[in-house]
Specification:
heterodimer; A: mainly alpha; Four Helix Bundle (Hemerythrin (Met), subunit A); B: alpha/beta; Rossmann fold; Beta-Lactamase; Helix Hairpins; seven-stranded mixed sheet; five-stranded parallel sheet; 24 strands; elongated; disordered C terminus
């Protein structure tokens, strides 16, 4: 019986991997690696108030999050990207709020991704 | 000639307190001679006379004060004057032998000192001018501090010195009239006691900047920003200076904004959750309906057929509600796009009639449609949304009418050179609505209570119709009376349409699974690149995929080998997709410049299609893309050629 997850939905990742377990496994590990590195980078850009770099990172993360299937992280990241695109003077506290949401959800997502990875 | 933008020169009023009339006359002559200062002089012979004059409210920009007066001698003269007027700009006049007094006077608040007999007219005017300017700047600074709730303080524990500005006291809800001494500051119950902690921190760190809550004398909590730094004195001790600003309102606004964005975020997630649950429910609902349909085809007795019919009816209702929720959610999130395409109004109404006539027939209602004179058959607009609005209105009319009729009609109400306004109305002889409840029926989830009856539905049909009409710049309304039926109407503008030859260019044939072609995939996102590559390789066994991580690399690869089609991400490091596409179209040899370029973009904005075309891209696929979507686009644009050769 397939595992039921609370924080991830790997339907898209599965569709993109076709029925090839090796591609699926590869995508899964790439996903974990991308998520683990993306958030510290986003946090650093926020602290430096480097908005162009943060916009780039958020845009990149959007593609990554599609594979994880966590609606909360999707939404938080979308808020960050939209805010940076639309606000001439971005609000650090607004962005920080959504970055905190991303950071809060990340451990749960990673945990479930690890469980999926351990299934071999 | 007047200098451009020169500051206008006012007439300064100077008071001279001097008991020697001849010396006073000399000072007056000196100042009259000076071009540096335009002033009038008021002369007082004694300190008492000067104080009296000042107390009468006369404004003087500066006071020249002789320290040796008949009613006051020495440094005490200045102290007494400043005690009455602490903000007065005072320049002390001393004897040549009394320079020490002058120095002490400056330390105690005088702006400057001049030794009698040792200054000329220019020096006197310069000293006065500088003092006045400095005094004005200080006044402005004080005003700024008052408006911005900024206070400042200085403290040197080793020198037993402490001074805080008036605003500092006000921030703490205290009176400046009763200033604290340095010794009082050391007492733990002194409101300024925590300045000592700041001083300790400044000793360690050089400069301290922090925000903190403080409690005012009336118990109210205020949030303040604090800055403190120290510098060494000749004595070896330290002099600390600090700034304090009351930022309670700013802090509250930030908290409010945070709470607001949290609430918005929560609402969004909730909406998403509802939309996602509804979406997930639609698939099994469709399955239930399909299975029920199949079940009816099997050999069932009458009772069993009745059960299946009930399943079908309930599933139909549930599916309708789910679709409405999804639609409303998309509308609230601004996720609906409107098309401008040619369509036949007659066909649209005929189809609508065909779909709904059974429902009306089941209830024995007369259902008819009427197209008014001058209404053109072909319009340009969003046929799908118009159909949806009419379906909701007619569906509602049938639902709330037990006997009589339902009529849908359309009339031309205004015609302009390039567009026309149509009015659609749906009338029925149903139960009707009280006039004061009419507005409420357009609100989401509002279902008017009916005696002894429950009508199915989530109450979203009319809100959706209203959204669809208003989002296209139209108006919607209703008139009704209980027991006398209702009329729901809306008006929309349409352009004159043309008969649609074929809405889409003919699709080229399927590309066989064993077709050989070369595809350049330009994508910096590693996972998307791998996913696209694997998906395409699975679909077309002989596909040759060339990978590039950015536009620069793509251009380099294109110089080395020909390709049949290019898939290109938009936002990439080094060189983005837009400038790469433009470069390919403008600068590459004809064979490459004409290759179809499909953008793969996560910019979920359909309007971006125009921008992409401007840069030379043929079409786009939105990320995250579904494999079938990608295949269809490739099939549409790919012109299979013999196996590509190296240039």
């Amino acid at each position: 019986m397939p595992m039921r997850y609370q924080y991830i939905n790997l339907a898209y990742l599965g569709r993109m991997a076709g029925e090839e377990p090796e591609t699926r496994r590869q995508l899964l590990f790439m996903l974990m690696e991308e998520l683990e590195t993306a958030l510290p980078a986003i946090r650093a850009f926020l602290e430096q108030e480097d908005w162009p770099a943060l916009l780039g990172a958020s845009h990149h993360l959007k593609s990554t999050l599609a594979f994880a299937g966590n609606a909360g992280m999707d939404e938080a990241n979308r808020c960050i990207e939209r805010h940076l695109k639309e606000e001439p003077a971005p609000s650090p506290s607004f962005i920080a709020f959504h970055v905190e949401a991303l950071e809060a959800l990340l451990p749960f997502v990673l945990e479930e991704l690890r469980q999926e990875g351990q299934k071999g | 000639m007047t200098e451009l933008n020169a500051k206008p020169e006012p007439l300064y009023r100077i008071m001279l307190i001097e008991d020697d009339p001849s010396y006073a006359r000399l000072v007056a002559i000196m100042l009259q001679e000076s071009e540096l200062l335009n002033c009038s002089i008021t002369h007082c012979l004694t300190l008492a006379e000067g104080v009296r004059e000042l107390q009468q409210g006369e404004h003087f920009e500066a006071v020249l004060l002789d320290l040796s007066l008949p009613d006051s001698q020495g440094f005490d003269t200045l102290s007494r004057l400043l005690a009455h007027f602490p903000h007065l700009a005072v320049i002390v006049l001393t004897g040549l032998e009394d320079k020490g007094w002058g120095l002490q006077a400056v330390k105690s608040g005088a702006q400057d000192f001049l030794a009698k007999g040792a200054f000329d007219a220019g020096q006197l005017a310069k000293s006065l001018r500088y003092s006045i300017e400095r005094s004005n700047i200080l006044k402005r600074l004080e005003e700024i501090q008052r408006i911005a709730h900024i206070g400042h303080w200085e403290c040197s524990p080793s020198e037993h010195y402490f001074h805080a500005s008036e605003e500092t006291y006000l921030i703490f809800g205290l009176s400046h009239q009763r200033p604290f001494t340095c010794e009082e500051l050391l007492r733990p119950d002194c409101p300024f006691n925590f300045f000592l902690q700041l001083q300790e921190d400044a000793c360690r760190l050089g400069k301290v900047e922090k925000d903190a809550w403080i409690r005012r004398s009336d118990g109210e909590q205020r949030y303040v920003a604090l800055v403190c730094s120290g510098r060494k004195l000749d004595s070896g001790g330290l002099l600390f200076s600090g700034i304090i600003q009351d930022i309670t309102e700013r802090k509250q606004a930030q908290e409010l904004k945070k709470a607001k964005s949290l609430a918005e975020y929560t609402a969004k997630v909730r909406e998403q959750f509802i939309a996602s649950v509804s979406h997930e429910m639609r698939t099994p609902m469709n399955a239930i309906l399909g299975m029920a349909h199949l079940l009816r085809q099997t050999g069932l007795d009458e009772e069993q057929r009745g059960y299946v019919h009930s399943i079908q009816q309930s599933s139909d209702i549930l599916l309708g509600i789910i679709n409405d929720i999804l639609q409303m959610s998309a509308a609230q999130n601004g996720g609906l796009q409107f098309e401008q395409k040619d369509f036949s109004l007659q066909n649209l109404l005929r189809n609508l009639y065909d779909v709904l006539k059974y429902k009306a027939g089941e209830k024995g209602l007369r259902f008819s449609m009427d197209i008014g004179p001058g209404v053109p058959d072909f319009l340009k607009g969003d046929a799908l949304r118009l159909n949806q609005i009419l379906y909701n209105l007619v569906g509602n009319a049938i639902k709330f009418t037990d006997e009589g009729f339902v009529l849908a009609e359309v009339q031309l109400i205004e015609e302009q050179a390039d567009r026309m306004q149509l009015r659609f109305a749906v009338k029925d002889s149903g139960i009707g609505i009280a006039e004061d409840k009419l507005d409420a029926v357009f609100e989401p989830f509002s279902r008017l209570p009916q005696k002894d009856r429950i009508f199915e539905g989530a109450g979203l049909g009319l809100p959706i119709a209203r959204y669809l009409v208003e989002a296209q710049g139209g108006n919607i309304g209703a008139r009704s009376r209980p027991g006398e039926g209702s009329e729901f109407f809306f008006s929309l503008w349409f352009e004159q349409g043309a008969p649609a030859a074929s809405s889409l260019p003919a699709l080229p044939g399927q590309i066989p699974a064993d077709a050989s072609f070369r595809l350049l995939l330009v994508e910096d996102h590693q996972m998307s690149r791998l996913a696209a590559q694997k998906t395409l390789e699975k679909k077309w066994k002989n596909i040759d995929i060339v990978l590039a991580e950015n536009g620069e690399e793509a251009i380099r690869l294109l110089k080395e080998q020909a390709v049949d089609i290019i898939l290109m991400d938009i936002q990439m490091p080094v060189r983005d997709g837009l400038s790469t596409a433009r470069y390919i179209r403008r600068n590459m040899p004809a064979g490459i410049a004409g290759v179809p370029i499909l953008a793969i973009t996560a910019h979920a904005d359909k309007a971006q299609g125009h921008v992409l075309k401007k840069y030379g891209m043929d079409d786009y696929v939105l990320k995250p893309f579904e494999p079938e979507q990608l295949f269809r686009k490739i099939q549409h644009y790919l012109k299979p050629t013999p196996p590509p050769s190296t240039i």
